[in-house]
Every structure is written in structure tokens, then in C-alpha cells.
Amino acid sequence: MKIVLGRLLQRASLRQAIGRRAYSIKKSVDIGQPSPASHPQLLKEGEITPGITSEEYTLRRNKLLEVLPEKGLAIFAAAPVKMMTDVVPYTYRQDADYLYITGCQQPGGVAVLGHECGFCMFMPEATSHILPDIMKGSSELFHNVQTAVPTYMELDAFQKAASSGKVKDVSVFTHELRLIKSPAELKLMRESASIACQALLQTMFHSKTHPYEGRLSAKVEYECKMKGAQRMAFNPVVGGGPNASVIHYSRNDQKIKNGDLVLMDVGCELHGYVSDITRTWPPYGSFSSTQEELYDLILQTNKDCVELCKPGASIREIHSFSVEMLIKGLNEIGILKDSRSSSYHQLNPTSIGHYLGMDVHDCSIVGYDRPLKPGVVSRDRNKD
């Protein structure tokens, strides 16, 4: 009886303790996104997002105003919240153009920028009469087509401009601005690439004892996040053996066989800026003679293409050089039987690279014939 009574008293005191400590009288302020006051470990004074100051965001808006027509109006809507199930949302990721101009990481907003109205943000969205009046006084409207919302698209002023052919995609301006990275952006991109490189190296060491696509995918994501990345830039591609030849393979559910190579295409996102790296290696420790010969050809092509990545060259020119070099090498090895580019493209239908920045395929409206300039970041796709 004493034992039973003792246990009941222990439970009663536990309930009382929980009851006394189930709430806190300390006030907590949630302003929606991190600030230097709430997250001093992330942001310094003067920064709107980690690494990017309020002055830089102002400079971006001023540069956009310089190319915006005199009575033109730029409209940006935040990315929508996407749902995994009816009640569970996916982790939110802001639209790159909206983030680039506003620095706001929260959903549900609309921002406008014009010579007369200046910079205005409507949170959660534009429900007042102010935005229709601003639109009516504008000669042209430029909006982010990818995140357009009915909140402003259904307004009479927008409908009238659209019917007159005076509504265009704002990316013709923003992608040009985003193409050249500032020193602060380049610093974040180097840090993002460094995290991905270190994570991939740790995953290589891990692969001999865990030769499974899924485990390698989990390992690289763990290492990226432990080193400070907020998320992966895309679902890791981990292809063992023949799976490596599947573009954007993402099942990651096979065991890698002894003697096969594994290809990993991975990248992480650090405070809005992404990295993108591909490497191929033998998890069991050694190349076959055929694998080594092919690997050396691709590695040498990679090195020669990196040497070409200088101001004045274009991604398309570098791509054409890589195709010529690989066709020649693959013929010598015996993998290709002729020098036709069509035969080569059956083996590799992808481009050698793409622009990189806030999105994995950054500034997609900018063509690959554009000469490279200082501040432009591209990703070399050769899989060494």
C-alpha cells in the first residue's frame, strides 16, 4: 500500500510541476523573419538578410528604376505557400526576384516600385484602393509572371493594361540585374560552394562502408545543414552504375554494386544563394582501366574548360569546345564510332553549364551567347 501511495504522490507532484511550468510570462516578439535583434548569430546590424545590407537592397531598387520606363511600374508578388498535404506545408522558399528586390522572406506580400510612387510593400497583400490608383497612373506594368496572384491581376486597372498589351514580364530587367553579383553575393556563393564541397568530401569517405544511394543522399544533406546551409538547392542526384546516366535521377533507392561508379549532383542553399557540384568516384576504392581512361578524358576536358572561363568567353563557346574535345577523345577510346555531334548528344544531351545564383538555373532569360563578365557565376557541368 505504501508503494502504491508513494507512486500516486510522485505522479501528483509531477502534474503540479508541469502545471506550474507549462507557460511562460516572458513576452516573445515574432516579427516574421530574423533580424539582428532576434538572431544576432545570423545577422549583423544593418543587414536585412544575412550578408546583404539594407543599403544593397536600396541600390538594387535604384538600378531597377534606372532601366524601368519613366511611367512604368514593377510589381512583385511573394512566392505562394505550397502544400504537401491538406494541412502540411512544404518548407517555404521565397521567389528569387521578390527576395532580390525586397529582402522579405515571408509569404503573402506584394511589392511595387515606380518613379512616382517609389517603393511600396503591401502585407499581407494589396487589398486597399492604393494599388489600383498607382496602376492607373502607369503607362506600362511589369510583373513577375511566375508568382502573379489574383489579388492584383483581377483589378480593373491591371485588366485594362493587359488588354492593351501593356503588361510585360519584369524578369527582362531583374535577370539582367541579378546576372552580375555584388561582392556580398559572391561571398555568400563561395561559402555555399565551400559547404557543399566539404559535405561531398565527407560523403565520399562515407561511401565505402555505406554504398547505398539513399544513405549517401542523407549523408550529404546532413553535412550541408550541419555546416550552416538552410536547405539543399535541389534533391540530391545519387546514381550508381547505370543510374548515373539518367538526367536528374532522384529515386536514390539502389545499392551501388562493387565495380560500379557513383555520380552525385548536389548543391546547397545558404541565405538565398545556391551551389551546384557534380562528382563521380568508385565507392569501393578503385577504377577499372576503362573507367579510369574515361574519367581522365572528362577531367582533362573539365580543366581546359575552366581555363576558358574568362571575361569575353560565353557558355556556348565553352560548351562547343568541350563537345569537340570529348568527341575526339571518345573516338580514340572507342566509345564513339564517328565524329558526328548527333552521336555524341545521344550520350550527353546537356549543356556544359548554366548561370548560378539565387536559383540553380539562374537568370534563365539571359542566353548562353552572352560574353562573361566579372561577377557572373556559371556552373561547369563536366562530371569529373
UniProtKB/TrEMBL annotation:
InterPro entries: Aminopep_P_N (IPR007865), Creatin/AminoP/Spt16_N (IPR029149), Creatinase/aminopeptidase-like (IPR036005), Pept_M24 (IPR000994), X-Pro_dipept-like (IPR052433). The lineage of its organism: Eukaryota, Viridiplantae, Streptophyta, Embryophyta, Tracheophyta. GO terms for molecular function: manganese ion binding; metalloaminopeptidase activity. Pfam families: AMP_N, Peptidase_M24. The keyword Metal-binding applies. Residues 52-156 form the Aminopeptidase P N-terminal domain. It comes from Prunus persica (Peach). SMART domains: AMP_N (SM01011). Keywords: Hydrolase, Manganese, Metal-binding. This is Aminopeptidase P N-terminal domain-containing protein. It comes from the Eukaryota. Its cofactor is Mn(2+). PANTHER family: XAA-PRO AMINOPEPTIDASE 3. Belongs to the peptidase M24B family.
